[in-house]
């Protein structure tokens, strides 16, 4: 396949990973984005993520496929490419005694989960290893990504392979075809607009809504990553702890509030998050309780949740060939390589189609 001119809308983890794989396939790529790594904005999800590999995308077969495909690459980066800002961490997953499992945690807390053969070091905890209030648990080797390092790392990799970056806001998706750096019309436009796919002209996907996440970033160190099957404070709240690589602090979460666009910190929720995390992992503060937490900042990010799952599809809009890659909700990093590989395959199909026209 010869080199084609591609415009990618978006510089989140989806846009950057896709641009990188397209450029490695020798395409000539321009990325156009309203927000870039370095920005912290409620419309830009990627910097707010933990981010780790906790496959909890319940019963969505395609997301399992994408997560399966992504694990080896994240592990390679963690073990062989320190400048990517990713490190290997133990994922410790506990089932809480006495409360039903939160529906979206079902896959992750299964003691024979679908990803058992994908991840390294999977095993069940012995009873005596469990924290107070937990009835069982599992552990495996996972990764934690420092997004403040990893997103710029992806930009650097893209630049190395000749990707050109532009700042801008695309009003209608078909307009992006005129934004290739060569000044010529792009052959394909790739849509990685995340949550804003619900507003982008020509797409306006009303199945996309936010799943709001609130976090507390602290200086305290955690001996591993933790999550639980449920929390006592409701089905749209959760517990997770993950220490980012290379001094990125430890993320304490969180919640999963569908349809909530609020960028404001909810202080009561922040208190509940900190208490839950210190209860499950007292080592965070060396036994000093919540008062021992050293807070860097509070944060809110909006996950791009899509009814029916993420959209990796091709179509023609106003005569422009488009491939979509958006809607990864809470698993955009852990599925990033699988999703981007499928996107690249659809770009190839679109180009073959155009050769026949
Ligand atoms: C608190 C929290 C914790 C999370 N934890 C994890 C985790 O542990 N593991 C994991 O895998 N995932 C996690 N996620 C989910 C993950 O962050 C998202 O799935 C992922 O970041 C989505 O990336 P994206 O590239 O699709 O969207 P975004 O990062 O939002 O990027 C969208 C891009 O499109 C651009 N754009 C949009 N519209 C336009 C337009 N009209 N014109 C120009 N540019 C436009 C934006 O400016 C931006 O550059 C978490 C999310 C949150 C909020």
Overall description:
The strands form 2 sheets. Strands 3, 4, 5, 8, 9, 10, 11, 12 and 13 form a 9-stranded mixed sheet that branches. Strands 6-2-1-7-15-14 form a 6-stranded mixed sheet, with helices on one face. The protein has a single domain, classed as 2-Layer Sandwich (D-Amino Acid Oxidase, Chain A, domain 2), CATH 3.30.9. The two termini are 16 Å apart. It has 357 residues and is α/β, with parallel strands linked by helices. The chain is 24% helix and 29% strand. Strand 9 and strand 10 (237-243) form a beta hairpin. The protein is elongated. Flavin-adenine dinucleotide (FAD) binds at residues 9-15, 32-35, 44-46, 48-52, 169-170, 192-196, 200, 213, 215, 253-254, 301, 303-304, 326, 328-334. It is found in: Peroxisome matrix. Belongs to the DAMOX/DASOX family. Residues 5-344 form the FAD dependent oxidoreductase domain.
Which secondary-structure class do the elements indicate?
A: alpha/beta
Q: CATH homologous superfamily name?
A: D-Amino Acid Oxidase, subunit A, domain 2
Q: Level of helix content? A: 10-25%
* Cα end-to-end separation: 16 Å
**Overall average pLDDT:** 95
How many β-strand runs? 15
**Binned strand content:** 25-35%
Give the number of helices.
Answer: 6
Task: Give the second-level CATH assignment, the architecture.
Answer: 2-Layer Sandwich
Please write out the topology.
Blueprint: E1 5-9, H1 13-24, E2 28-33, H2 61-80, E3 86-96, H3 106-109, E4 120-124, E5 134-145, H4 147-160, E6 164-167, E7 188-191, E8 208-218, E9 225-228, E10 237-243, E11 250-255, E12 257-258, H5 267-280, E13 295-306, E14 311-317, E15 320-326, H6 336-356
Parallel strand pairs: 1-2, 1-7, 2-6, 3-9, 7-15
Antiparallel strand pairs: 3-5, 4-5, 8-11, 8-12, 8-13, 9-10, 10-11, 14-15
Helix pairs in contact: 1-4, 1-6, 2-6
Bound molecules: flavin-adenine dinucleotide.
Flavin-adenine dinucleotide binds next to helix 1, strand 2, strand 8, strand 11 and strand 13.
């Amino acid at each position: 396949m010869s080199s084609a001119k591609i415009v990618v809308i978006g510089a989140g983890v989806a846009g950057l990973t896709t641009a990188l794989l397209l450029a490695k396939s020798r395409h000539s790529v321009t990325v156009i984005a309203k927000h870039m790594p370095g920005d912290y904005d409620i419309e830009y999800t990627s910097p707010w993520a933990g981010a780790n590999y906790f496959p909890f995308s319940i019963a969505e077969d395609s997301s399992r496929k994408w997560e399966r495909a992504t694990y080896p690459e994240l592990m390679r980066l963690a073990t062989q490419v320190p400048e990517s800002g990713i490190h290997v961490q133990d994922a410790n997953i506990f089932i809480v005694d006495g409360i039903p499992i939160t529906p979206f945690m079902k896959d992750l807390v299964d003691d024979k989960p679908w990803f058992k053969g994908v991840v390294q070091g999977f095993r069940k905890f012995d009873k005596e290893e469990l924290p107070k209030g937990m009835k069982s648990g599992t552990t495996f080797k996972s990764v934690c990504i420092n997004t403040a390092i990893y997103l710029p790392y992806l930009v650097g990799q893209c630049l190395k392979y000749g990707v050109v970056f532009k700042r801008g806001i695309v009003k209608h998706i078909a307009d992006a075809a005129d934004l290739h750096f060569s000044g010529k019309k792009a052959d394909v436009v790739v849509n990685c607009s995340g949550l804003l796919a619900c507003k982008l002209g020509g797409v306006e996907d009303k199945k996309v809504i936010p799943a709001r996440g609130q976090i507390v970033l602290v200086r305290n160190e955690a001996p591993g990553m933790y999550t639980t099957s449920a929390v006592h404070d409701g089905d749209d709240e959760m517990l997770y702890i993950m220490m980012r690589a290379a001094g990125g602090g430890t993320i304490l979460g969180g919640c999963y509030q569908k349809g909530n666009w609020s960028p404001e910190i909810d202080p009561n929720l922040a208190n509940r998050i900190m208490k839950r995390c210190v209860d499950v992992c007292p080592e965070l503060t060396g036994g000093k309780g919540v008062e021992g937490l050293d807070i860097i900042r509070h944060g809110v990010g909006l996950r791009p949740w899509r009814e029916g799952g993420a959209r990796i599809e091709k179509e023609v809009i106003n005569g422009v060939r488009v491939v979509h890659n958006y809607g990864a909700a809470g698993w955009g990093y852990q599925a990033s390589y699988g999703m981007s590989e499928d996107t690249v395959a659809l770009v190839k199909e679109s180009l073959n189609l155009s050769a026949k026209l």
